Amino acid sequence: MILPDKFNPAFLLTNPHLMTLLPRYWPRFAWKRGLPQTERLFTTEPGTQLLGICHWQKAPTRVPTVLLLHGLEGSAESHYMRGMAAKAYRAGFNVIRMNQRTCGGTDHLTPTLYNSGLSSDYRAITRELSKNDGLNRIWLVGYSMGGNLLLKAAGELEQSEPALAGVVAVSPNIDPTRCVAALEEPRNWIYHSHFLSSLKARMRRKAALFPEKWDLSALRSLKTITQFDDNYTARDGGYRDVVDYYNRAGARHVVSEIAVPTLIITAQDDPFIPASLFDDPAIRGNSRITLAMLRYGGHCGFFQRDCPEEDRFWAENRIIEWLSHQS
Asked: Which of 86, 130, 157, 300 has the greatest CB tally within 10 Å of its CB?
């Protein structure tokens, strides 16, 4: 199913770079007002814990749950994670804002790195919430890299986890090989430079915490994310090399197996997620997947014109509508 394009971009934001960058600086006043908050550690494998920021309703087992997952070098505090959490909680959902491994100040909770293929973490968390907490309607909502991870988890689970209600992915990088190649194009230097600098800073923190594991001798010479992933991410994740990592980590291999209602929101003008990725018959031919392929939106932007009925964050509002309808 394809969702019609009903998104009206804000003035001047038909430029994909402005659309991508501006929303992160738009103020969200009092987003946390009235939201109860607790922290929880999820152990997904020996020696590795992930931190979740939980916003529970008064009777958690009686309502559906939304698990939110951020993108590359984001965290549970990313602006879209906060916005979605506030909207979902006020719509009656439990909300868990997850940090991927090492993100959100959690480098000390694992000697490992996060990567685009670690869907096993979110399969484990979903099962824990189902078996230990009695939650029976769990929705997974991810952005960019997080979207890929959750689509991959859903495809791998198929119908084996009854508590999994469905998935939403915004601008997911379902084919890392092509997405990283696009990210490293000269026109995307601002994003590439930001991500690479942030990843290098993360490696320095990891080496300070786990000096016996990490050798930083090559770090200074690395000029691209591909080089970084070849030297660090791929090897840490158990992949042969970066080519093997990018190929195996993509959700494109398993989207045909997704057996729960799924919404993918992406844009034709996304600077580094090629729209042609979503022409895949595995997506178009899966009746469980609703694809919203918008003309404008940038990367996880979808910042709309001033609207009296709702705020500017179009994708967040549509996700809440879709989840509420499905639930």
From this structure: 300
Q: What is the pLDDT of residues 178-213, one digit of tens each?
A: 999 999 999 999 999 999 999 999 999 999 999 999
Rounded to whole angstroms, the Cα distance separating 155 from 119 reads 10
Cα–Cα distance measured from residue 20 to residue 270, given in angstroms and rounded to the nearest whole number: 8
| Cα–Cα dist 155/165, whole Å | 13
Q: To 10 degrees, the CA torsion angle through 275, 177, 264, 131?
A: 180
- Distance separating alpha carbons of residues 166 and 163, to the nearest angstrom: 9
Helix (H) or strand (E) holding 52: strand 48-55
Number of domains in the chain: 1
Alpha-carbon distance of 228 to 225, in angstroms, equals: 5
- What is the residue range of 25's domain? 16-174+251-326
3-state secondary structure of 176: helix
Q: How many CA atoms lie within 13 A of 91 on its CB side?
A: 23
Residue with token string 């995307």: 188
Collapsing DSSP to helix, strand or coil, 285 comes out as: coil
Residue type, 309: E
What percentage of the chain exceeds 90 in pLDDT?
94
Cα–Cα distance for residue pair 92/128, rounded to 1 Å: 21
Residue 298 belongs to domain with CATH number: 3.40.50.1820
- Give the count of beta carbons closer than 10 Å to the beta carbon of residue 252: 24
- The pair of structure tokens assigned to 306 is 């001033």
Residue 224 domain flag: no
CB 143 within 8 A of CB 66: no
